[in-house]
Amino acid sequence: MSPDEPHFHVGLAMTEADLMGAHRLRYRVFVEELGGDGDSVDHEQRFEIDGFDEFAEHLVLIDDRRDAGSFDHVVGVYRLMDRGGAEKAGRFYSAGEYDLSPLLDSGRPLLELGRSCVHADYRGGTAMYLLWSALADQVSERGVEVMFGVASFHGTDPDALAEPLSALHHRHLAPEDLRVKAIGPTARSMDMIPEERIDRRAAMRAIPALIKAYLRLGGTVGEGAWIDHDFNTTDVCLVMDTARLTARRNLYTAGP
Question: Which helix (H) or strand (E) holds 168?
Answer without folding.
Answer: helix 162-172
